[in-house]
Specification:
Length: about 220
């Protein structure tokens, strides 16, 4: 074999391994590139929380619904019931106060007239009847006054008195206690003398005793 032929054979043998190495290198580069491209897909799949949150959302919704149904609604219902009860109590209280106001104003007027009006011939019966419209210490004081002063003087001096109430005003009133301001005009006749007129105002305090309103205080103002 000639030298030239041997050289070509050597070149061919050296060329084949070189081509093989290049292909392997290219395959490795391709494999590495493929792996690099696929890595983000794997990361996205691992980090994606959507399925877990999607499964958890209905459970949280059901729990809040139970809390609302078993906790919030009964509390709201209780508050509404308490509010309705309070409003009803307030309404009843206002109504009772209005009734007490009307009743005590009328009682204060009638009782004041009865206490301050009398005639010589019937003074004892009239003022003792008026005494039954009173209560407490004031009843005792009034009893002493009429028995010691008014009844004997009316009989002896022929004194008569007529009281009227031209105006009055409720100061306060509740189902058990009330105060009424009463304006009184009184005309007094002694024997054959000319009538004398006087005007005054009295603060009348009333207490509910059983089903009756009775005067417990009678204070001139």
């Amino acid at each position: 074999m000639s030298k030239h032929t041997q050289d070509e054979t050597v070149k061919d043998e050296t060329t084949v391994p070189a081509d093989t190495d290049i292909e392997k290198a290219e395959d490795e580069v391709t494999d590495e590139s493929t792996e690099k491209v696929e890595e983000p897909t794997e990361v996205v799949d691992e980090e994606s929380p959507e399925p877990a949150e999607a499964e958890g959302a209905p459970k949280r919704g059901i729990q809040w619904a139970r809390v609302f149904a078993y906790g919030v609604l009964p509390a709201v219902a209780l508050l509404l019931a308490m509010g309705a009860g309070y409003l009803k109590w307030m309404d009843n209280s206002v109504r009772n106060s209005e009734v007490a106001r009307a009743e005590t104003m009328q009682v204060a007027k009638d009782s004041t007239i009865a206490m301050l009006s009398y005639k010589p011939d019937t003074v004892e019966q009239q003022l003792n009847a008026a005494r039954d419209l009173l209560t407490g210490d004031f009843r005792n004081s009034y009893t002493s006054l009429i028995n010691d002063v008014v009844i004997p003087g009316a009989k002896q001096k022929q004194i008569s008195a007529v009281a009227t109430v031209p105006a009055m005003a409720s100061v306060s009133a509740d189902p058990h206690h009330a105060v009424v301001l009463v304006f009184v005009n009184q005309t007094v006749v002694v024997g054959q003398d000319a009538p004398s007129d006087s005007a005054s105002s009295v603060r009348v305090t009333l207490e509910k005793t059983g089903d009756r309103w009775l005067i417990s205080k009678f204070d001139p103002v």
